[in-house]
UniProtKB/TrEMBL annotation, chains A, D:
One of its GO terms (molecular function) is transmembrane transporter activity. The chain crosses the membrane at residues 44-64, 76-96, 101-119, 125-147, 154-174, 194-215, 236-254, 260-278, 306-330, 342-360, 367-384, 390-409. This is Xylose transport system permease protein XylH. It comes from Microvirga tunisiensis. Part of the binding-protein-dependent transport system for D-xylose. Probably responsible for the translocation of the substrate across the membrane. InterPro entries: ABC_transp_permease (IPR001851).
Automatic annotation (TrEMBL), chains C, E:
It comes from Microvirga tunisiensis. PANTHER family: CARBOHYDRATE TRANSPORT ATP-BINDING PROTEIN MG119-RELATED (PTHR43790), SUGAR ABC TRANSPORTER ATP-BINDING PROTEIN (PTHR43790:SF8). Residues 16-251 form the ABC transporter domain. Residues 249-280 are annotated as: Disordered. It comes from the Bacteria. Keywords: ATP-binding, Nucleotide-binding. InterPro entries: AAA+_ATPase, ABC_carbohydrate_import_ATPase, ABC_transporter-like_ATP-bd, P-loop_NTPase. This is Sugar ABC transporter ATP-binding protein. GO terms for molecular function: ATP binding; ATP hydrolysis activity.
């Protein structure tokens, strides 16, 4: 195996397999041992968070068997979707290394705006929603302007935004107080009741595995053609089957009760779209580059200002979306909407899921994972009869425990020289 | 008579932590009455910490756990309408507690009236001012400190205070919605008004005892002596002590245990399939209202000590002993 | 000191021409009145002491810094380079001394940063193949192009930075100490590469502290000293001439060291009959 | 001026003046023109924030002449001190590039602890205070442990702390609600009334100028002796006199009313001490190094874990101090203490004052400046009769305006190639 | 390939001795079974291709990385270096390839980082004087030592990093490509410095890609290839020998380039009678 890199050597190894110092996995056994290797060196992606989640679930289930009851899990999915969409926006802005403290206010204002325009002013609901989304995007554009033009730190500009928009929200609802959304409207139905028909849920749950397999299969073929190494087909198939089985089981279990909420479907759809945009488009690549090293990205010819603008606008627009969803969920546009811990929960979800506060590292899935962790804790504690003081203490402790697994894994990654 | 009800689950959902009453009075009162009426019944207790979504989550989980009756003190009266409808569609009875749900017809409503509380403290202040012959000369007036601008209950109290003050002849010099009910904010605001209006401040209507304490601290810090008349609400120990010491004028004592017990009774009746008797009808809902008591130095002994809401030991430690003696408490 | 400016420009188009470029950083004048010309198919070496202002000049040409004064003419037109993307659009590719890589991205992503294939559905396979091809051309030994750049060795990173600049079809290539961290083999490849690029008619500005490399590929050697032009030399100028221009004195640490070593060699090796070689 | 660096050249220029490319200021004229140069290149330190402050003050004063009345300013100083001390702790933790979201909770819990131990349990007040401070330090030590040992991101661990400690606070005050602190006790007196005697204030206001001049004079002498350039004496004197005049005027003006609060004196004392520690000790140097480049600091032999531990502990302990001060100011330990916007205000003060959220840049004075900006806005709006919705909107807008000046200055610094 | 290990150790104390050091990064084996000895008063040059593992080895000795296996003996005692401060305490000073400076601190603060004078009341004047002295010794041209390191040129930074390592009284100095970014004058100073340090009886490990510099100061040249020992050479080994050991083939880009240039020179310069010099 000491071949030189000469082009004319008789059996040139694959382009990316010429370095003899690298161990490569062969076949299924190799894949397993590579996986074990990765566990040992702590290079695990989001597995540790999942492990933390499983621990939390086990504990809560043993404390109150209602916790894993399908009914409760369906509620959990409804609750995840609203803040989850906001967290997805936060992921965007964290990836470029900035922050948005006003997501809570924006979501609250968006719900108020929908309430006022739709219920009070009688606009068509779709137009009201579009207006709210446009408002969200506009807010983001203002932050981006302040950031690009004046270099105002996003912490300060969005703090100012938090206050101003909360003021706007109070102003808008000032004369009426909270506005109830019609209980029988499609929007509220969507936020409270609408679940997928069983068949649709089963079909959708089969999609990821199939799409994954087909795409990876085609990529593998192209890689082989191009002289690159390609993953072992068996392991691809194994993974696809595994994913499908798990998802189908979840669907089956939840279908025992109401089934999968369409709202959760929307959230997951947004996550998948965002993941595609971040990992498979030039724009996403630029986002991660800007977050990792702004100056290097600028020197590579990336329009850094444009990237920041899109990040801020996406974040605010998604926050507005989340606000509309929570109004739908609550069937009301209230003065409290978006206040309290919405901000912290959204940011914490992104961070717990593995997105870095310092930019350049993160994934759309961290919003999904993080919000499930947070809402699981909240839901689990709701099932125990605790005084508020105990509930706060236990929430904090459980949060720490959920993240400790991930931190330990990352720590081991660092001690193995992999940052 | 209660043999028919056993092993039922009842949820008791409280809104926030702005005062200690929910965990110190309402819940213990409710639980005690439930235990008396139905020892095998399970009471689920939750506090939403002033968070609408959290209350919704708690409401849903109560349903998941099989609650047949839900007693809810809504964080947001308007938003609770959907919860009520949702529960009723599953055959679950909802008792609105403390705050009404105007937009949906709950199965029963047990409360003191927050608006009435606001009006009561304002009226009490006005009467006191008039009794002490304080005239509203030009430029003088009272300050109004409301609760959190995002809190619906605070909005009701605010409305009541306005109702009490508007016709009183004492103009409102300035008013303030205290974010998160935070006493330091109330203090900072009051300090500013003392700078602005100085001796022209005849009194302060504060929406709860915490903000009242903040206002009193502001007067003390500015060296204003004696402190003008300051009202409060909730009858916290700290406020009662301030009344004993003569720094605060009044507060509102809500016999929460009694109201909670009434709610428990109604709940049991629902569980037995009976229709509870209504005293009045409010918001289209059968209701039972309780009248809160305004506590001042004059009736503190009678309303608090004698009704065993607090003990003399709780109130009269150390520096308050002398004041207590003056009020005849020992 | 021969001014070879006139001679070389015969018949060749001028790619770049700087006149009176100055740059201040606060109280420090990093560059003062710099003039410089580069023609097609010409390798201009920019040499000078540490802190002489070479990188500052390159950064101005790459659009990273804006000059405090002076004018830049590119292919006959006056231009202002107020952004790196402006320079890239004109066809100026740069390898920066600090490399300017995104440590959190992998090798392929860094090489293609800003010029990804099929922007709405990145063509990772083609990009990876192209990356390996470029890297192999440069004799780089990189274990995997799918690891973040943070895990690469110094020389591997520099190779990645050089590979990046080859992706474009530039008119002018700026190389700021491109071989500083490279091994002997990789250095030879880069020097070959520079010659190939020149033969394709591009202009090249190369900065290096290695006089041997400079003389091997440069058509003209421009010396900066303390932010000012300090002469233009032919590649066959003697080492001593160059070093004096760079350090500003004929009695410098290089010449001192050379003479000291010479003396030692005479003492030590005279019996072995080896002729002492003057290396000043 | 083309001398070489040879040691034996007849008149060797000063060690640090051998580079002919650098312009140096000579005499007073030179100092002035250097200052103008700095303005042009945007290298202004905290001047822009001061300018922003002056703008705010002018506007508020024109809206309500009470604003700059000595009485109101004295109130302002009282109010600044409590959150200011917390912000000082936040500066510490931001400098090492971490964050503490739990300062609010810690401050609230510390005030509750003092209330319970002192008033309810009858401990001596000093012991109660020490217990609260020790508790604060302990919390910081726990964060540091989680960070050093498990690598748990401080955002998550302190979020968990925020919740847990809030729970503790509610638990502690659960049975009693708020606790009144005795109005006639020295602690409350300190927080509400105690001001410096006029003479003491005048003397203390003279100190900075004198100390500055003496120290700089001695340093200048040592520098001259060592062959380094030294600042022009006249300009030193000018600056000393200027500082003294400004400070003495402030003291004179505030003495027209009650005078300078001792509590503010304590705050400023802490700021000065922290500034000394950060700029003039090995520990402070290590803090900034760790914040700027953790790995480089580690390779320089700095005990990075120790530095993080001190930073976390200092931050929590100062938060506890701030909590005790606000309890003293309010004469009450309440359940709301430390909730609401205490956290955001403390962090925002540090950031507005110029401390970076990303570590490695910051100064103790940023806590002082930042909190004055924030409290000025709050105080100014208090004097105007506004509805809460308007108040929120205007707070946000004014905040943005106050920071825009600073951002612009920093921007110009960047565009001049100075990061 | 002469194993000069035995010969040189005569009479000299061994400062450092590595046996069987390996280091894996995930699936990559960066080092495999490395043996190395350094004696007092000896300069060992560590050479190898890009990515050969030289810096990894230095980082292990500096306590930055922990080896996956193998033993380290320092001045006769087995040691474990689980932290850079452990290495510093033993007297191992390191100039890292990536310099490891704190960009937000000024030059003086960087030079004295971790070893400030009078920790409770920093003696800025003495530190500044000492900093200037060190920098002048290295012929550095730095406008101001009170500017953050971020504003320095590449070579200036490297000088700062070298100055840092001189502050300690080390027993062993590790220099990872110390002259990569330095100008000709500064390089000469650093080579002088290395010789002075050696004469004071310290052990030195120097990494460099410049064979001329290596031969000028090294007592022994150790070659790494793909993370393994690949021979030990005398400084008078021929360039070709060294390059073959480094690249692992006698037909490599360096030799190809040399022969190509030779051919060109013969063509072009034969009329001028200049003897073509074989530089392989
Ligand atoms: N951003 C900046 N801010 C302040 N001074 C700077 C900045 N960039 C460069 N300088 C100064 O300008 C001078 C020239 O720096 P430059 O990087 O151009 O040198 P160079 O010729 O590339 O040196 P080297 O050979 O060491 O790379 C140096 O003295 C440096 O301190
Ligand atoms: N932290 C790390 N994680 C993963 N791989 C690493 C890490 N550090 C080094 N490597 C790998 O180890 C190998 C050796 O790297 P090292 O930096 O030691 O090379 P080097 O000999 O110093 O090369 P150069 O001459 O380019 O500086 C490289 O292939 C590199 O990719
Ligand atoms: Mg340079
Ligand atoms: Mg290296």
């Amino acid at each position: 195996m000491t071949k030189s890199v000469d082009q004319n050597s008789p059996v040139a190894p694959m382009l990316d397999r010429r370095d003899e110092r690298v161990k490569h996995a062969q076949g299924i056994g190799g894949a397993v041992s590579a996986f074990l290797d990765r566990i040992r060196s702590g290079d695990l992606g989001s597995l540790p968070v999942v492990v933390g989640l499983v621990i939390i679930w086990t504990v809560f289930q043993s404390l109150n068997p209602v916790f894993l009851a399908p009914n409760n899990l369906v509620n959990l999915l409804f609750d995840c979707s609203t803040v989850g969409v906001i967290a997805l926006g936060v992921v965007c802005i964290l990836i470029v290394g900035e922050i948005d403290l006003s997501v809570g206010s924006v979501s609250g204002f968006a719900s108020a705006l929908v309430g006022v325009l739709w219920v009070n002013q009688g606009w068509p609901v779709a137009v009201a929603i579009i207006a709210a989304l446009a408002f969200g995007a506009l807010i983001g554009a203002i932050y981006a302007f302040l950031f690009n033009r004046f270099g105002m730190p996003s912490f300060v500009s969005t703090l100012a935004g938090l206050l101003s928009i909360l003021g706007l929200q109070l102003y808008l609802l000032g004369s009426t107080g909270s506005i109830n959304l019609p209980y029988d409207s499609p929007l509220v139905n969507f936020g409270q009741m609408l679940v997928m028909p069983d068949v649709v849920a089963y079909v959708l749950a089969a999609l990821p595995g199939i799409v994954f397999f087909v795409l990876e299969f085609r990529t593998a073929a192209r890689r082989r053609q191009a002289g690159l190494s390609s993953p072992f087909l068996g392991s691809l198939l194994l993974r696809a089957v595994f994913v499908t089985v798990v998802l189908e089981f979840i669907v089956y279990y939840l279908n025992l009760d109401r089934g999968i909420p369409w709202m959760f479907g929307l959230f997951v759809g947004l996550v998948v779209a965002m993941n595609y945009a971040l990992t498979r488009t030039k724009w996403g690549r630029s986002m991660i580059a800007v977050g990792g090293n702004r100056e290097a990205a600028r020197r590579a010819g990336i329009n850094v200002r444009y990237i920041y603008t899109t990040a801020f606008m996406l974040c605010s627009a998604l926050a507005a979306t989340g606000g509309i969803l929570s109004a739908a969920r609550l069937a009301s546009a209230s003065q409290q909407a978006g206040t309290g811990d919405v901000n912290l929960n959204a940011i914490a979800a992104a961070v717990i899921g593995g997105t870095s506060l310092f930019g350049g590292r993160g994934s759309a899935y961290s919003a999904l994972l993080g919000i499930i962790v947070i809402q699981s804790i909240a839901s689990g504690l709701t099932l125990l009869d605790l005084s508020s003081s105990l509930r706060y203490m236990i929430t904090g402790a459980v949060l720490a425990i959920a993240v400790i697994v991930d931190s330990l894994a990352r720590r081991s990654r660092v001690s193995h020289g992999r940052a | 008579q209660n043999a028919k009800v056993s092993n039922a689950t009842v949820a008791f959902l409280m809104p926030d932590q702005a005062s200690t009453r929910y965990e110190e009075h309402d819940y213990p009162g409710f639980k005690a009455e439930m235990e008396k009426l139905c020892p095998t019944c399970k009471v689920l207790y939750q506090n939403a910490d002033a968070n609408v979504s959290r209350q919704q989550q708690q409401f849903n989980s109560a349903i998941s756990q099989g609650a047949k009756v839900i007693v809810i003190d809504p964080v947001d009266s308007a938003a609770a309408a959907s919860l009520v409808k949702q529960a009723q569609s599953q055959g679950i009875k909802v008792i609105a507690y403390d705050r009404p749900v105007p937009d949906a017809k709950a199965d029963f409503y047990v409360s003191f009236d927050n608006e009435a509380i606001g009006k009561a403290i304002a009226d009490s202040l006005v009467q006191h001012l008039k009794a002490s012959n304080v005239t509203a000369a030009s430029g003088t007036g009272v300050l109004q400190i409301n609760g959190s601008p995002t809190d619906a209950a605070a909005g009701l109290i605010k409305k009541g205070i306005h109702a009490g003050l508007d016709s009183s002849g004492y103009p409102i010099l300035a008013e303030f919605d205290t974010p998160e009910w935070a006493p330091p904010k109330a203090q900072q605001w009051a300090s500013g008004q003392i700078t602005r209006f100085g001796k022209n401040i005849l009194g302060v209507v504060a929406a709860n005892d915490g903000t009242a304490g903040g206002a009193i601290a502001a007067f003390k810090a500015a060296g204003v002596n004696p402190v003008p008349t300051v009202t409060g609400n909730d009858a916290t120990i700290a406020a009662l002590q301030l009344i004993i010491a003569g720094d605060q004028y009044n507060t509102i004592s809500k016999p929460s245990e009694i109201v909670a017990a009434a709610a428990a009774n109604v709940a049991i009746q629902f569980l037995m399939g009976e229709t509870p008797k209504a005293e009045t009808t409010l918001f289209n809902t059968s209701s039972r209202l309780f009248v809160p008591a305004v506590i001042t130095a004059q009736n503190l002994k009678a309303e608090i000590i004698d009704k065993k809401i607090n003990t003399a030991e709780q109130l009269c430690g150390g520096r308050y002993a002398e004041g207590c003696k003056k009020l005849g408490i020992n | 000191m021969t001014n070879t400016n006139q001679q070389q420009s015969d018949g060749r188009e001028r790619v770049l021409s700087l006149r009176g470029i100055s740059k201040n950083f606060g109280a420090v004048s990093a560059l003062t009145d710099i003039d410089l010309d580069v023609h097609t198919g010409e390798v201009v070496a920019l040499v000078g002491d540490n802190g002489a202002g070479k990188s500052t000049l390159v950064k101005i040409l790459a659009g990273v810094h804006q000059p405090s004064s002076g004018s830049i003419t590119f292919r006959g037109n006056p231009v202002t380079l107020d952004d790196p993307s402006a320079a890239l659009r004109l066809g100026i590719a740069t390898v920066f001394q600090d490399l300017a890589l995104c440590e959190n991205l992998d090798v392929v992503a860094n090489i293609f940063l800003g010029k990804e294939l099929s922007p709405f559905r990145l063509d990772e396979v083609s990009m990876e193949v192209k990356a390996w091809t470029l890297l192999n051309e440069l004799s780089a030994r990189i274990p995997s192009v799918r690891e973040p750049v943070a895990s690469l060795s110094g020389g591997q990173r520099q190779t990645v930075a050089i590979a990046r600049s080859l992706l474009l079809e530039p008119k002018l290539i700026l190389l700021d100490e491109p071989t500083a961290a490279l091994g002997v083999a990789q250095t030879a490849e880069v020097l070959d590469l520079i010659e190939r690029v020149r033969d394709r008619g591009l202009g090249v500005i190369m900065i290096s502290h290695n006089m041997e490399d400079v003389r091997a590929v440069a058509d003209r050697i421009v010396v900066l000293r303390l932010g000012r032009n300090n002469g233009v030399f032919d590649p066959d100028a003697s080492n001593q001439e160059l070093v004096s221009a760079i350090t500003g004195a004929s009695n410098n640490s290089v010449s001192r060291r050379a003479s000291r070593r010479q003396a030692q060699n005479v003492q030590a090796q005279a019996p072995q009959g080896q002729a002492p070689e003057a290396r000043r």
